[in-house]
């Protein structure tokens, strides 16, 4: 499992404390936290959508400024200060040349791109990718998430052998796709009612 655990304070994520700067990202080493602007964005989204966020033990942030080989999906446990970093794929429409870097966001149906903004985690289900979880777009930038079936799921193109062979993950249709081991961890930690914030500073 591509995990790095590191502490972060509840105030730094949801309060008014100074934001934590990200460490320089190496090809396979996770920074200590997402970019400070994304922490700020997640904090604002948490306040903006607080009435709909019923599960507050974990907050997720996807920092799409990082390469897909780098663990860039961060699970924060505010009470303990624990941070878990995992690798996540982005949409092929966001990276047409398959560079490993997200180039653009889009919420247009058929774009196969990743969307930015705040999501609410929904119900779990078993689909073509096995155990998955629906996502509800809360912002104008990702309002079509349900229509586009943007979900959390596992994918073969996120497995370690693909990363080892190509130096990057494969691309999704805009979903948050993980390796089989990592998606099990995400699905366990992110039940219904959690905030997932996606962006690129």
Give the arrangement of secondary structure elements.
Blueprint: E1 5-7, H1 10-14, H2 36-48, E2 59-63, E3 73-77, E4 82-86, E5 117-127, E6 130-137, H3 145-148, E7 151-154, H4 160-166, E8 176-178, H5 180-189, E9 195-199
Parallel strand pairs: 2-9, 7-8
Antiparallel strand pairs: 1-4, 2-3, 3-4, 5-6, 5-9, 6-7
How many domains, in number, for the residues? 1
Report the count of strand segments. 9
Secondary-structure-derived class: alpha+beta
Major sheet: arrangement of strands:
1-4-3-2-9-5-6-7-8
Superfamily (CATH H level) name: L,D-transpeptidase catalytic domain-like
* Proper CATH architecture: Beta Barrel
From the N-terminal CA to the C-terminal CA, the straight-line distance is 26 Å
Instruction: Give the percentage of residues in beta strands.
Output: 15-25%
Helix content: 10-25%
Low-confidence stretches: 1-10, 15-27
Using the coordinates above, name the CATH class.
Mainly Beta
CATH domain topology: L,D-transpeptidase catalytic domain-like
Specify Rg, calculated over alpha carbons. Answer: 15 Å
Described by its quaternary structure, the protein is single chain
Q: What is the succession of H and E elements?
A: EHHEEEEEHEHEHE
Helices, by number, come to 5
């Amino acid at each position: 499992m591509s995990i790095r655990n590191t502490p972060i304070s509840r105030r730094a994520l949801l309060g008014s404390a100074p934001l934590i700067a990200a460490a320089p990202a190496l090809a396979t080493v996770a920074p200590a936290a997402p970019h400070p602007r994304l922490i700020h964005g997640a904090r604002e989204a948490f306040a903006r959508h607080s009435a709909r966020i019923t599960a507050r033990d974990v907050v997720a942030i996807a920092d799409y400024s990082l390469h897909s080989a780098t663990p860039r999906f961060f699970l924060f446990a505010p009470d303990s200060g624990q941070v878990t970093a995992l690798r996540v794929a982005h949409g092929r429409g966001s990276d047409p040349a398959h560079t490993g870097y997200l180039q653009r966001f889009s919420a247009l149906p058929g774009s196969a791109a990743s969307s930015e903004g705040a999501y609410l985690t929904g119900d779990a289900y078993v689909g073509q990718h096995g155990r998955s979880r629906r996502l509800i777009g809360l912002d104008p930038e990702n309002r079509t998430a349900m229509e586009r079936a943007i979900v959390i799921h596992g994918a073969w193109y996120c497995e370690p052998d693909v990363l080892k062979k190509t130096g990057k993950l494969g691309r999704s249709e805009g979903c948050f796709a993980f390796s089989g081991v990592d998606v099990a961890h995400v699905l366990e930690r992110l039940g219904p009612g959690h905030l997932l914030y996606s962006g690129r500073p």
